[in-house]
Backbone:
């Protein structure tokens, strides 16, 4: 975890410094251009500047909206998984009593594994191990429940119990899939390229003033850096500063109620 936090800080500082340096490079380039061609240095560049800044704004909007939407979906998935597990656990009462205790114990172990999957992140190896354990327990629960339902010889009981198990397992698979759902890496590469390009162009425009406008330079760098960091935080809510760990409490409370 410490190495991840260090990487996060390095990324934030590196992006900020890169934007400031790009602005300075653009400013110096603008000075040279104006010295060599005072009248035509900025002629016709407004359209290009507007197009590139507009493209950056569009991509920032796209990535921010997508990350925020996925963040909300992941929170909803936690609630839905808790509901489906709780419903399936309650319906175990419909199977013969001798089988209930063993199935319920498997349920407790399964929920422990599901909670541990996301708690172990960003240790992906440990999270994958817990995910495999949950899949193994899922098979045990399914086999034991089918055997118990066959003893009742009641189609309605079998339909209710197995149907709720199906929903529980489907919800777990959906949540796992959505946790791995991210935009292609090229989108973020393109975003960083546009941020640097716009920093160069912003510095070029500020070359019209002989004195450096540090207020605008630093404000531009801070705003862009924070925006990119918020997008990354929303996209990976288990490793940044914006987290959904609090929502795991729903599953933990459900686990505590499984007595």
Residues:
């Amino acid at each position: 975890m410490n190495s991840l936090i260090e990487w996060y800080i390095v990324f934030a500082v590196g992006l900020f410094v890169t934007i400031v340096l790009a602005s300075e490079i653009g400013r110096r380039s603008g000075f040279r251009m104006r010295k060599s061609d005072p009248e035509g240095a900025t002629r016709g560049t407004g359209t290009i500047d507007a197009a590139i800044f507009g493209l950056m704004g569009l991509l920032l909007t796209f990535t921010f909206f997508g990350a925020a939407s996925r963040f909300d979906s992941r929170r909803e998935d936690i609630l839905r998984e808790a509901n489906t597990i709780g419903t399936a656990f309650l319906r175990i009462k419909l199977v013969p009593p001798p089988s209930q205790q063993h199935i319920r114990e498997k349920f407790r172990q399964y929920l422990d594994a599901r909670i541990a999957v996301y708690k172990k992140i960003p240790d992906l190896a440990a999270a994958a191990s817990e995910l495999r354990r949950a899949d193994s327990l899922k098979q045990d629960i399914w086999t034991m429940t089918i055997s118990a339902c066959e003893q009742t010889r009641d189609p309605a009981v079998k339909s209710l119990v197995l149907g709720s198990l199906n929903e529980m397992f489907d919800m777990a698979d959906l949540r796992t899939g959505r946790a791995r759902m991210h935009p292609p890496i090229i989108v973020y590469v393109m975003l960083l390229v546009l941020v640097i390009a716009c920093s160069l162009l912003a510095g070029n425009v500020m070359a019209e003033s002989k004195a450096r406008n540090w207020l605008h330079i630093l404000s531009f760098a801070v705003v862009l850096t924070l925006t990119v960091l918020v997008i990354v935080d929303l996209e990976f809510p288990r490793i940044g500063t914006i987290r959904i760990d609090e929502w795991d409490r729903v599953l933990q409370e459900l686990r505590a109620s499984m007595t």
